[in-house]
Write a structure and sequence with these properties.
Blueprint: E1 4-10, E2 19-31, E3 34-41, E4 49-51, E5 55-64, H1 67-70, H2 74-77, E6 91-97, H3 99-107, E7 115-118, E8 124-130, H4 133-141, E9 147-151, H5 153-169
Length: 172
Amino acid sequence: QKNESVHLKYRPLGRTGPRRYEIDPYALRLARGAWYVVGKDHRSGQTPLFNLSRVQSVKPTGRYFNYADAGFDPKVYFASTFGAFHTATTHHVVLEFTGLAAELIRERRWHSSQKLVELPDDRLRLELDVSHLDDVCPWVLSWGPQVKVLQPAELRRQVIERSAATARLYGN
């Protein structure tokens, strides 16, 4: 609210210990049940998301920034996000749904970029342009055998690897 830079003691996902950041906090966002702050990291110059549940401490720096001069637009920043994660890269995702999953996909707006294409035999193709596949992959896996990844190859590979790892966990 005051446009004050802050010091964060933050534990990135997958790390055992915290790292220290100095950020200019730009916006808060609720995504998939978790709160995130997005802000400019003074060390890298990037604008990452920080999950508030992993913030161990926040301290004001006494230094202020001009939000208007930062050029941050949350609508632009989050336009291609599917959940929480953001990258500068955009992936064209093409999925084919069958059965009840196809019915459920037709009923909702899943993403601002989505395009639906009706296919024979009550199948449905969903196309999305998203910035980070790590949000899309668990969602795709949640549809089980009623979805097939057509594009991109990277997402298809992730789904195959995670499905195989899950099958091994259960002795298949």
